[in-house]
Every structure is written in structure tokens, then in C-alpha cells.
Amino acid sequence: MNCKKIISAICLLLLAMGCKNKTTSDAAAIKTPNVLFIAVDDLNTMLGSYGGPAITPNLDKLAAMGVQFNDAHCQAPLCGPSRASLMTGLRPSTTGIYGMIPDEKIGSNHPTDKKNVVLLPEYFKKNGYHTMGIGKLFHHHAPDGLFDESGGRVKGFGPLPKERFVWDGFGTSDRKNYGKTSTDWGAFPEADSLMPDHQSVNWAIERLNRTYDQPFFMGVGFLRVHVPLYVPQKWFDLYPLDSIKTMPYLKDDLKDVPPVAHKINDLPMMPSTEWAISSGEWPKIIQAYLACISFVDYEIGRLLDQLNNSDYADNTVIVLWSDHGYRLGEKGTFAKHALWNTATKVPLVFAGPKLPNGRIVEEPVELLSIYPTLLEICGLPTNDSNEGSSLVPLIQGKKLEHASVAITTFGMNNHTVKTKRYRYIRYEDGGEELYDHKTDPNEFHNLAADNSYKEVLLSLSENLPSTNAKWDVDSQYTFQPYFVEQKSRTTKADVPVTEPVGN
């Protein structure tokens, strides 16, 4: 056994001995666990286990056999920077990856010391794991050569019908200034087997039937529920239109938010909530989104069933996560692209050997913590460059010394801080938002201008990142003029932290 494997075994033994209700014989029997790393695109918390309307028996079962985090948040409400943050273990404000970035540029070309950046699957590979991956794990798939075995990326979000069903992709936007969204909804194609996610699961199932002489790390990235909201008709049939409830909505909701918030939320290529109301399409969009969730639940169920029937059932840690939430009419549109709760909140579940069953964690946590948490659970040495904190104490039901917070960043120097009670947002121009989830869970009323919350604002602002790196040269987001302008304006130097307005 080489030194790395000896260190891994010792760390794993110490972790097991430190867990509640673990016996010496249990700890001695533990082998280095495998990892099944499941990423689902654009999945919000409408799952059954979160109290949502989606029919998700397989995801509910996974939550029941593990630990579900009820208040987990992404580090960026956009696919590229969110996944880059999770995979590097670094915040967007540290790397400058605020927009999309080619997979091969992550970890090899950004402002931090690139020698210290070891991507999550790469770290497992360096510590004796056989690594495999398929589907959307990074923005497209993964940097070339990252996995020992790669099933490759799936191009686009098809299959696609010959013509769109409802939405043309441009909306009311000026085609010169905005891109074209894939947003559309309807029943297509005829069979699950025609969906790329079904084929990805087939690839993973085949590999779970193999024998390995070392622990494995397997990443499976699902495309749905990313738009277009196309899945076979049978999934739509689970949700009769007359059973669909639309989301809480206040027409004048945005009258009390700062100018930058309006710029970020300027998404004319997406359906607006007012259009969805007047056209009668709002329930149909939600129906399609729920149908996509149930389809993904079925595919994840196929994957988990194979794991449970394999030789690895009792020695595999599972983590399931989504890269960000998704708004279904909240705050005026259908998109992620915001620092509000429905855009940042995500499902997060850990399950596996020696982990508690059916535990619910209510403290706010970050996707950034997945990296260090997996290392600790698997008994691997810590990666000192990780900026997230391991969730193992919360998994074990321990009380934290300090209250946890979750920080999300969208563009340079635009941040939100989520605590158990409050959401605080600070934009690059110093504009602020504050919402009290105890009295206003829908974030309808911005309290930042209320002097009685002055001390709350000051306390929350202390959690904002002290570093706001300039945009990475290879990272960009051309979907909105605001981000194009911001990158052009702020690439000369790092931006200092802005003092709170009125403090």
C-alpha cells in the first residue's frame, strides 16, 4: 500500500471513530468509499422531500436514506460560474469566474495561483481513485483528460422538434443585444430512451456492473430540467393543468430594488410573468417544469437501483446537487439570473455508509462545501485551498460554534448573504436589499431603507467577500449587456469593497 492510501485509510478510520453511534468494529470494517456525484441542471426545491408539488419518489427515497439540506445555496445563479466554483473549491470573487468559461480553462488560467487549483475529480484521482464522468458536470462536460473514463458531453439540450411549440427564444428583445434562449415547453419526444439523460444513465449503469481494483469517483450530470422543457407526454400526464398552482407574485415587487437589480433582471428574451398571465401559459410552464423533474427523478431512480443491486451498494457515498435554483414567475420572469432566494436555493443531499438516515439540516449552507465534505467523508487529506467548510459536523448533528451563512455572487462585486432568518444583497454601486424570511419568505418587501434594521445590515455586511477579483479573461456572459459592460469597465484592477449605503 502506498503512502497516500495509508494516509487515506488512517483519516477514514479517525472520521468513523469520531461519529456518533459508531463502534470500533464498525470503524474497522469501513473501506475507502466510492463516490457517486449527481448533478442536475436548473433544479429548484419543488421536490416532494422539500414539501414541493413534484412527484419524486426516487429523490424522496434518497433523502430518507441520507441527509437533506433544506437551505443550500449556489455560489452563482448561473451554470458556468456555479460549477466552476464547486469544482475548484473557490468563490467566484476569488477566481474572477463570473460568467461562462470553457471547461479546459478552469484550473489552468485564472487569477489565483494555478499550482494550488486541483479540480474536485482530479483531487480524487491524485488520491488513488478511478475517475469516471458523463454528461453536464462542468459547463459542458469536463476539461479534456480530467476523467480516467469519460462518456463525453452531450451537445445542446435536445432532442428538438422541427418547430418550437410556444416560445421563439427572442421574446421582446433586440436581437443585436441579447442572445436566443432555449426556453420552450411541450411534450417531446415520444420515448424516454430518446433523451440524452437516459443514455447517460445507461453508460453509468454499465460501469456499475464492472469490477474495480481501486475506489471510484463517478460523476453523472443530467441536462434536464434545463430548458427547453421537453419530456415525453407521460410525464406531463402526472400533472393535470387544473391541479397546477402558480407561484407567489406581486406585480410591483421590484419598485423598491436598486438600479443594478433591474439591470440584472432585464431578460426580455425570457417570458415575463405578465405575459404568462395574459396568455394563460403560466400553469403550462410550471406543468412542463414539474414533468421534467419527474423524468429526471425516474432516471436517477434507474441509476440508484443499479447501485443498490451492485457490489458497491454498501460502500458508496452519494451526493446530489443542482447548480442553482430556477424562478417560475417569481420576480417577474422565468429564469435563474438573480440574487433572490428562488434563484440561489438548491437541493443538496448526502447519503451513504455510516451517514445518518432521514436527517434534515435547516442551517444555510453552500455548494462550495461539497468539495471539503466529500474529502472528509472519504477520509482524504484536506485541500487547504478550499474556501468552503466541511458539512460533516452538520451531517453528524453537531452544533456549530458560529452561525452558518451562504454567499452567492453574480457578476463582480454583487453579492448576497443568506442567514437562517435574513437575505442581504449588496450590489457593486452600494445598493442594498434586505428581506426578513420570518415575515416575508417571498422577499416582496425590501427593508434596507428601514433605519430599524441598520444594525442588522451592518452585521450581515461583515460576511461579504473581502476580495473582488477582476473578471477572468476567459470568462464572459454576453446574454445581458450589463455583464458585457461590467467586464469591460472593471478589467483594469480589482474592485475594493463598497461601504454600505447609509452606514
Automatic annotation (TrEMBL):
A Pfam family per the record: Sulfatase
One GO MF term attached to the UniProt entry: iduronate-2-sulfatase activity
Leader peptide range in chain numbering: 1-27
Q: Which domain of life is it from?
A: Bacteria
**Which residues does the UniProt record annotate as the domain Sulfatase N-terminal?**
33-379
Coiled-coil region: none
Cofactor(s) recorded in Swiss-Prot or TrEMBL: Ca(2+)
GO cellular component, alphabetical, reads: cytoplasm
| Keyword presence, Hydrolase | yes
- Keywords, ordered alphabetically: Calcium, Hydrolase, Metal-binding, Signal
InterPro entries for this protein: Alkaline_phosphatase_core_sf, IDS, Sulfatase_CS, Sulfatase_N
The record's comment on protein family reads: Belongs to the sulfatase family.
What is the official name of this protein in its record? Sulfatase
